[in-house]
Specification:
Length: 466
Amino acid sequence: MIKRCTQYLLLFCLLVVTGTASARGLPELTELIEENSPAVVKINTLDRSRVARGNNAPQFQQDIPDIFRHLFEPRRRQQRPVASMGSGFIISDDGYIVTNNHVVSGADQVTVTLTDRREYEAEVIGTDVRSDLALLKIDADDLTAARWGDSEELQVGEWVVAIGSPFGLDYSASAGIVSAMGRSIPNESRENYVPFIQTDVAINPGNSGGPLFNLEGRVVGINSQIYTRSGGSIGLSFAIPASLAQDVVAQLKEKGRVDRGWLGVGIRNVDRDMAEAMGLDKPVGALVEQVSPGAPAAEAGIMPGDVITRFNGQRIGVHGDLPHLVGQLRPGTEVSLELMRNRKSEKLKVIVGTLPGADDEGVQATVKPSSIIGGRLGIVVEQIPEGVKQRWNVDTGVLVKQVVPGKPGAKAGLRSGDIIAQLGFEEVGDMEDYKTVVKELPKNELLPIRFFRSGQSTFRTIKIES
């Protein structure tokens, strides 16, 4: 009898422990979803400028007798406006709603449906392509507004919940964890101003613009993108951080547009070889390849070849971290930055400018140089013709005519048409500078080389082997 009681007691303790562990591992979400669903809306759009076109008659119909031609005519399709859908959420009881820009982009009619089935025509207050956010407004009463949370406090492994209308299935909820923070995903214009929150929450078409909640029921992100090969969720979804979204929404509400910070630099990642050449312990930071004339970076003294390692007190791990930090600052803000220059650490102050519109794509050119040999690097170079200088807005350097396979220049990635502007830590102004610098380059040491390709500044490393 005592033995049996002991077994029951052990079983009871095991159930208690198991229940406690289960409660800790799997959060209870029913109250969170019930309380916050009324703040989530379904968004339907119509774009009347895009319609389905009827089929054209095939060419062979011309040879068919009129009496039989109607048998071969395709049925005419009724032309209808292109419709799309997404999600959003109410942020204030006076009817302001946040969603994705791509949900409403190009639409001439936006309809918002609430959880109680009320429908309203929405006014688009403002949109921001770079962050993929849009601010809408409806004229309605008795609205439930979502509450913003602090996305800066999110940690990898933390539980999050999404509510939206995937595939038109209204107000569906899904849960998962934060998989990573600060993901850099360039947009179609190759701009990168959003440090995305990556989750494994099931996000599908129709979830776009919907809220991502933490376990306190606060909005910490706006669901924006998925990575998929099938069109459905494979556990890779990305949300815009609430900290960034709140600033964008405030600017859209105030002035209908968003002003971002701007440095005016072209940057790239630092690889292992470049880190060694620049005197870094490991490959971190953003390597400055190009500085726009008159830009804030130029005014602050930032130069091509600098590696920015900290900006406004924040560490730059990869080059994508820099536009995230710069873009979130208001123009006119003065901040400090740290960089490596000629293998020495320096500190500078910079006043952030206003990010201009996207630049037009450059036009490619064909260069036809003459020949001057320059030996140790295995490349043939010449003075830059005036026409090439004007075309690419380059004042100094030497033009590469030919690259010998297997030599240092080829291993560094140089091509015919490149313009060499720096070797090691020395600027190359003309042919005389080039000859002098090449003679003094040390052997068996990784050195930086900067050159222009189609007008774009690029950094690589080069080594002259013995």
